[in-house]
Amino acid sequence: MKKDTKDMDVAKGFKELEEISAWFERGETDLDQGLAKFERAMEIADALKKRLAAAENKVKEIKKKYES
Amino acid sequence: MGAMKVIQVSEFIEVVNGILRETLSGELFAVEGEISGYRVSQGQWVTFDLKDDKALVNVFMPVWNLNVPVEDGMKIRVFGLPRIYPKFGKFSISAERIELAGEGALKKALALLRLRLEKEGLFDEARKRVLPRFPQRIALVASRDSAAYGDFVRILNERWGGLEIDLYHVLVQGEKAPNEIVAAIEQANSISSERSFDSSRRTASAHDDSYYDALVMTRGGGSLEELMAFNDERVVRAIHASRIPTMVAIGHERDITLAEEAADVRGSTPTDCARRLVPDRKDVLYELATLLQGVETSIVQELDQGQIALERAFASPGLWLAGRKAELEAATGNISTTMDSWLMDLSGELVNQMRLLQSLDPKGVLKRGYAILRDGKGHSLVSAAKLAVGQEVSIVLNDGEAGAEITRTRERIQQPKLL
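ok -> structure tokens follow
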């Protein structure tokens, strides 16, 4: 797994995946590129699945500078 | 009488004002009454009469002390000190602040403020921003002790994980609430712009322009009076001014608060707010699977196409050869047929010619009993006129010849031709 797929930004991952999907839908015919993109798609999907498995949201209380 | 001090008017007013100040300061009471003759002069001084059934008192205040919009007929409470204005000798309450009294006045004030802010464009649909689909970090302005906060966090956890929530704990009702809420919104905004620069350099965030993806403000339902902090003009303006996209959900109230109207996104309840903020991970996983399946189908199709092309490439030289062969066969076939019939025609012609030739062969005629007469030099003799009696001739017959002598000649008279 490449480094950039660790702790993946969901929005970014989805965007890239959608771009790959669109690339294929355009009917591009470069097989080498296609295979590389497919591999990348699998990688992103795997990272996103892992990211989505994160169970909890972190709540942190901000120190108050504003209390009157 | 003699002990009585004579003082000037201005001194007298000063004394009276001093007594009033000393005895009535410290917010001992608020004066409740109905507004009449409300007027703003020079854009900064507010004056009106406050009255009940039996009495009337003038109220004076700078316009910036007016924290709620008012108009004639509204019931309010005035907080401040009474004094006499020296120049005109006019007794009036110099108001520090006012408070609306009763639901009716609240509603009226709210309607006025709504109208004013609406005209100013604070609720314009056109300027509403869309919240990111997958927020990473949010500022939450709420009371940590409220049920609204608990509901919000619980629903968030049910749907999504890995979200960073910065809680800005505030009072959500009462006199101090508006100030705290405004300060919290401002602090969140300044933290957001401070940190967005660092974070955009450190980690490549998808939302580089802002540290927080959303500012969420929520509280549970309540009476109109309890929710007034969310109708406060300062709060509404702070939400409108927020650079972080805002989402406000104030629970279960028929009337929408102005804060909600000014927000980019409105949730009807804290729970609804959580649903609108984050997607359900189940939906996202499904979508992910669908997307991936599409890509998989595409690559498989592409591979299939490659294979077909490859097979075609291998098969095509053979096919080409077969094609050429067939063409050749067809061409040769044509030629041989043509040749055959040509030969046939030719041999037919030959037979005819031979037959003709055969019929012309004088030897054939000899067979049938005719004879050829020749002179001594071998020339054929065909005319009786050219014969002379006593001339020696030879007679050619079918199988040989014989010598003879002409004994007589007689020319045949030519008969006219019938045809």
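DSSP finds nine helices and 13 strands in chain B.
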